[in-house]
Amino acid sequence: MLTSLNKSAIVFALALCIYNFASAQIRPYTQVFSQNLKGGTVIFGNTMMHIVDNSSPNLTKMNETSNAGNGVGGLGFSIYGNDNENMQPINNDAVFIVPPLTVFNSASTWNYNNPNTDQGTAWQTLSAPPPVNWVSGTGTFGYGAPPETITIPDGNTTNYFLKTVNITNPALYSSFDFTYSYDDGAVVYVNGVEVRRSNMPTGIIAYNTQASSINFTTNETFSIPSSAFVAGNNVIAVEIHQNISTSTDCFFDMSLSATPVPYTGPSNSSAADLILPSGTNTIKFARLYWGGRIGSTFVSIAPDTLRKVKIRKGASGTYFNILAPATSVDQFAISGNDIAFQSYVDIKPFIQANGAGTYTIADVPCANGAITGGGNYAGWCIIIAYENTALPFNSIRIYDGFSQVYNAGSPVTQIVNLSGLNVPNNPLLLGDASMSTMVWEGDANLGATTGNPAGDYVKVNGTTVSNAMNPITNFWNGSITKNGAFVTTKNPHYGNQMGIDIDEVQVGTGYNILPNATTVAIEFGTEADRYFPSVFGFSIRMKDPLITLDKTVADANNNGFIEANETLTYTLSGTNIGPGTGYNTFVVDSLPTNVNYVANSLKIVSAPGVVGPITQTDLAGDDFAFKAVNGTRNYVKFYIGNGATPTAGGEIPVSATYNLQFKVNALSIPGQVNNSARITTNSQGGDTLTDDGTASIGPSGGPAPVKLLSFMGSLKNNETYLTWITENELNNDYFNIEKSEDGIRFSKVGTVAGNGSTTATHYYDFTDKTFTNAIVVYYRLKIVDFDGKSSYSKIIIVRLKGTNDNSFSVFPNPFEGNLKIALNIREETIIQCRILSFDGKEVVNRKVAVQKGANVIVLKDLEKITTGTYILEIDTGTEKLIQKIIKK
């Protein structure tokens, strides 16, 4: 069962074009589902047959996984296959078949009495133990009529017998069957109701009513319906009458059994579990496949035989009938009158209605017993595509078909060309790509031989695929596995499926799946086996970019303060430090109201696709940047990246950098100037990613109102924990904490008091309840001074789903000798801090012990690091945190 997906996985099934040698392509492979969505796929199923010896499943053969010792094959897995084995259907429902019931046997325990007085009818319902005048005994009862073992008093016309029996559920039985012997006549009651009268007159039976004739009857039988009994205790009452009151012989014995309601359930059934990720899952595609080997005679007698199965949610309960369209049945004659087949049908509504859990499939057509030339087999499989908004975008492609890989014991290959792949533009790690397969009739004991050491294999781009449960020389070995481990969430769970393979294997590193590839070559091979490829899939991880934006401001006088009418130069720069390319990339800077834009000052100093520096015009549509107005707010916008146009952004490759500039003039009384810029890009999967940069400059004669050293957030127990640090505050009244789900429209969620005017370092925090379905939320600080003026911090992003809750920031940045790291971490541990150059060389490597919660770490003595831009990497043991840093 293939349930888990890597971050931003894309699932592709195979578009197969099979070049036939001596084998056969039965139905060409076609695309049956194609959609880009947040979600993934899962495939699960089970075998429907097992080897039965001496009326029981042979667990040794179904689970043995040692090497073959007979030289025939099976190297690396098992010595057993289904050829010439007594293959019988699995029936999980057989545990619900009710066996015949023996309520009590002959010569059992009874209470008896012969008072020779009128007993009325009350005695017929006396439950055990009866009154003290009754006697208990175990055996056969009577006098003068061997073989009684319990002698009862003689001289009376009638003897009375009582027994209480417990029946848990009478409705499970179609009838209850009595067998009894008596001398001379008898009347039988169940719970006070007469159910049998033998050799007795009609009418009311009294204590002195004589039997109709002299009689000794043995083993008389009669049946009564189950409705005569109740669930729980039931009273059996019998009176034995003599033909004359002075009779010299009497006898009584009885047994009771029950016949079960006839079994009308399925002829075979097995179960497996559908496992879906947490959260809301919308089923976009679900198809059930079933198949096996069967005689063509069965099909000719009932043409719809192969089209019918049953399905239910759970391990018990009501089945629903499935009927596949006549066009959804694949057949292939394999030998004599036998055919291999598969059928399939859409079950999306059923899976959507029932969700994750156990599914049972029943009545898959199959042939029983032992047969030569491949053996009998049967099984089923379900493949699903689902949407879950908590997951990244995935491109899902599912294909199916039906072909035979076989050549009468001689080595044979088939070439499979895959089309429609969408491999990311970055090299793949091993776990970045996985191949899922469903194949019929692979045998565990048929693998490599001395004549064909390659065995039964599958290759991806010429490289043979294998793992711990699927060896190189016998990949198709009748196993259900995920990444080299058995899938155990099925019933029954056998190691050897005897005729169906469902496997997921990792095929990233080493399988020549190159960046941006759209085709992959698959090769099947066999030496003696026969198998039928059906459903195939590829899951390929999409790599996200991580593009930073840093904003700096330089004043014309170069003294760090803004003066009347002074020109300010803003620089917007950053790097794609993530593993994936950024698409449709642009930068927007909204200008504050207390400055005037300097006409024609837009400049692309450097960027992918541009040989700079290049000065841009202010008009939209004639180059890669422009200046415009939105309402009363002026802004500038840059389209950057390879393939950028005057109306759309381009691609920012991994490790690529950019540098943009523009100028503004201060007003005659400028005051504090704060403004932020944002870079926006898309991942290959379609996610929108942003980063913000803020630059502040204050007037001469004093520091900026508030100097923020850090501002960061993390997720803890469904709450967002925000922390920030100030190094300098001037007339700081309070902070408004503002939140947004789109990064554009912000609203206040709380207020924290400031510290007025201070040059000391202060630490602040705020906890926000995150009652939202959003994947990410955005936060900013509105810093308000005592006279009502305000400025904003940079915007930070807190991911609520799909990530861990570690977060960090660094300061000062740019740095000189020391670098401080504000780190919020989930648990006490030792972290590794590395500083890397952009060519991957390690400059600093230090290990630091941290506590649970907020930490401030100082990396000292960094003066000798060469001036430039670096990557700071924090390895917490569970994830890696990355940020760009600049050494002055």
Description:
By secondary structure, this protein is an all-beta fold. 2% of the residues lie in helices and 51% in strands. Strands 1, 3, 20, 23, 24, 26, 27, 29, 32, 33, 35 and 37 form a 12-stranded mixed beta sheet that branches. The chain starts with 8 loop residues before the first strand and ends with a strand.
Task: Give the terminus-to-terminus CA distance.
Answer: 54 Å
How large a portion of the residues is in β-strands, by DSSP E?
Answer: over 45%
Class by alpha and beta content: mainly beta
Number of strands: 63
What is the rounded Rg?
41 Å
* Helix-residue proportion: under 10%
Mean pLDDT across residues: 84
Low-confidence stretches: 1-22, 67-77, 802-806
How would you sum up the global shape?
elongated
Largest sheet: 12 strands, mixed
**If helices are DSSP runs of H or I spanning 4 or more residues, what is the number of helices?**
3
Sequence-ordered SSE layout with sheet pairings:
Blueprint: E1 9-12, E2 18-19, E3 24-47, E4 49-53, E5 56-57, H1 59-63, E6 87-89, E7 101-104, E8 109-113, E9 135-138, E10 141-143, E11 150-151, E12 158-167, E13 173-183, E14 185-190, E15 193-198, E16 217-225, E17 232-241, E18 250-260, E19 269-274, E20 282-295, H2 296-301, E21 308-313, E22 320-323, E23 329-335, E24 338-346, H3 348-354, E25 357-362, E26 378-387, E27 393-404, E28 412-419, E29 433-440, E30 457-460, E31 463-464, E32 480-482, E33 485-486, E34 490-491, E35 500-506, E36 519-526, E37 532-541, E38 550-555, E39 567-575, E40 582-590, E41 595-597, E42 603-606, E43 614-615, E44 625-630, E45 633-639, E46 650-652, E47 657-666, E48 673-682, E49 688-697, E50 706-716, E51 719-740, E52 747-758, E53 762-769, E54 776-785, E55 790-792, E56 796-799, E57 807-811, E58 819-825, E59 829-836, E60 842-850, E61 853-859, E62 868-875, E63 880-887
